[in-house]
Amino acid sequence: MKHTLIKTELPGPASRALAARRKACSASPMESLAPFYIKSGRGAVLEDVDGNKFLDFTGGWGCLVTGYSPERVVRAVQEQAGHFLHSDFTVIPYEPWIELAEMLAKKAAGKTEKAVAFFNSGAEALENAVKIARGATRRRGVVVFEGAFHGRTLLTMTMTHRPMPYKFVFGTAPDICRLPYPNPRRNKYAARDFEKLLLENICPEDVAAVVIEPIQGEGGFNVPPEGFLQEIRRVTSKHGILMVADEVQSGYGRTGKFFAIENWGVEPDLITLGKSIAGGLPLSAVVGDKKLFDALPKSSIGSTYGGNPVACAAAIEIIKMIDNEKLLERALYLGKIIRHRFEGFKGKYPAVKDVRGVGAMLAIEFIKDEGTWSPDTETCQKVIQEARDCGVILAGAGLDRNVIRLLLPLVITDEQLVEGLDIIDKAIAAAVKAQPRGARAKKAR
Ligand SMILES: Cc1ncc(COP(=O)(O)O)c(C=O)c1O
Known about the structure:
By secondary structure, the protein is of the alpha/beta class. The chain contains 15 helices and 16 strands. A hairpin with a 2-residue loop joins strand 1 and strand 2 (45-48). Helix 3 (71-83) runs antiparallel to helix 11 (309-324) and helix 12 (327-348) runs parallel beside helix 14.
């Protein structure tokens, strides 16, 4: 049985009607990847307002590790909504916050005792991680990396690498220092160089935190070379700097571990979480060393809606679902199938030059010329469009927009995964006109 179904032109008439209404009233910089409008979703499949069905391999931009509307989460949301929608934890506290904080503190257990604070968005978690680091160390500097994405508020947009359409338009916040990210193909920078680079660029006594995504998300699923995260941990501890792992995108299971950073055996001082943690409801968190929170003045962090009870109720069920349905194991299983197919694409299509990632968090990179490693943005974008027209929604990534990354729900069935990968295969074939490697090499000669 096929799970995708394209029965109208895209976008269909009902989507076009919504697009016309949107044009008249919705702020134009808020773009959408898809030209059609969603009506409903279950697991990895969504249906648009014209009855077309798609496999969503972006998982709502990484927010749906447990898929669209899992039943137990919907039930918990309905039940909590029936009790109360909101009270503001800083006015009248409630149990779902405590229960979720207990669960997360347990998941992050390590050498230090853990505490948790809840917010609304990934960027807000990052803003607060920086506040906590600054407050606890009484230092100002924040070190981030090339290729990083940490959000779109003024501070987090400055921490994010991509200059356009962000800081070139809106300006920057102070005290952010960006260091190169090791990339074996583009620079010779190795894990052991981190301390030297840090000392060359900023006085370590001024640095409150080094913030790093254990696997870069928007940057193109760049996986740190062996020893890099461990070296950051060593150097930050040596200089009294805090290490913040931004797990907003990598967090909760995709890599086969609950937190991606566990893959490297490193315990950061703070972890930021967002996206998938409440299955699509707005919730984010900072989890970390309790002493750091205890060093801050009372009421110095908080947010009116942060840790909303309905979102907390959903998030509690998400963690139970990950545990009960063994989604960490499933991520590794899915990852094996995807990697095998992706390696096949690499052998078959000359434009696909790299396969990378951990667990089910996998990506392929499109390159024009292996010598200069010049990005093939055009082919990559064409593949995304072809796949979408055939029923698979894909997310691009990378500073050059030449990477396709999978953020698919881990509840996807084997059948759905294979159907989606077949569509991607056909989409690449259509985009590159299926030139086998030999033919392309001969042509080049
Ligand atoms: C690693 C990372 N950090 C932070 C953010 C910002 O999250 P939000 O868009 O919820 O503010 C994102 C969003 O893509 C992200 O991928």
